[in-house]
Amino acid sequence: MLSTKSLKERIATADYFQGYAYSYPHKTAYRAFEKPYSMQEVWQNEDKSALFLYLHVPFCEMRCGFCNLFTVANPKEGLYNPFIEQLKIQSEVTAQALGDFKVARAALGGGTPTYLSLEELEALFSILKKDWNLAPEQIPTMVEASPKTLTEEKLAFLKESGVTRLSMGVQSFIEEETKALGRPQSPKDLMHAIELLQRFNFPITNLDLIYGVQNQTPDSWKYSLETTVSYQPEEIFLYPLYVRPLTGLGKKSSHQEWTDFRIRLYRIGRDYLQANGYEQKSMRLFKRKNSALADQPEYHAQENGMVGLGVGARSYTKNLHYSSEYAVGSKSIKPIIQNFNQMTAQDFNQVPYGVILNDEEQKRRYIIKSLCEGSGLSYARYQAFFNSKVMSDFPELAQLFDLGFCQDNATGIYLNEEGHEHEDIIGPWLYSENTIQKSESYSLV
What we know:
The protein is of the alpha/beta class and 445 residues long.
């Protein structure tokens, strides 16, 4: 682990916004197990009283230039048609393997779930209600959407079904900027989609913006911010532009000028939203004040499991994370979807691919999720969960105090404003090299 001085030097010279701790371990650490586990074996000792149910729809109407998600654009019939039927099999097998459980959160992502037709969305929700007792009107249920795939009929169905959060990628209200992102869309069509979305008055509407786009300026960034705030969404996510391998934008060499530019735009966005009624929850998430849903079932991402359905979805237990194989390029993704389309009930009951987390890695994940997702790291919850003290397990966390990135209010560690600014470095700083360079040897014990 770096010394405080070395960490400070690294932050000062780092290519800022190079990556972020979306999950831990990263999916590139997953490998094929020597022998597949059964679904019952994986879940038998887990606390299933507050699960997150995630459904991945690996289809979109276009592939954005910055996208590195598991999705294909405008899939051909043979790739697309079997999806719902296969999902029925996978869902039933998985629910039966888990036994007694309770869903506390649900989300439909991808890809773009609203790429599906109205009839397919109805079939999908029918599956979730049948196998998972999913009642969206009773628990927070989130759906991802894109402007071109929204229709009045789809929104009416999602609202009637009790969906509580609808999230849509705006990225920019400047047409030249969305073209530069490999996602051409006219501001007129975009505004029409937002106005259509507002008519249905979902409890939470989220709009995503991206900064760091080619030829973006502080003034154009402010325009997108002002336009977004004028709609008063409950949540706004600000994403820096990441240019990753195998995406449409390809590789971009890192350089300090681009880093400084994005830092400047981030601060403009942060300051503007805070000055206009939004609270910063993490580096990316800003929530409109007094907009939280009341009486939500308790769910802690650090402690509770997640069940993934659909090809490309991840599932998390305490010491095992698993999914389908990992890919970004469409040529590699398509064979994985084709394999999913041919799987049997017996196949769906097997867990052949993932990563095992030892005690140290479970603790690292807990800390990273706590610090970088806005909730803060509770000393008491950590000790109750692991039967050890976090500062004894990871004394290097004191460096965050020395650097002024976080505060200790006696109950836990919480990132302050400067800490949020450096989340892209704090998360990877806590990564274990043993997990990043995972060996081929796995064990559940």
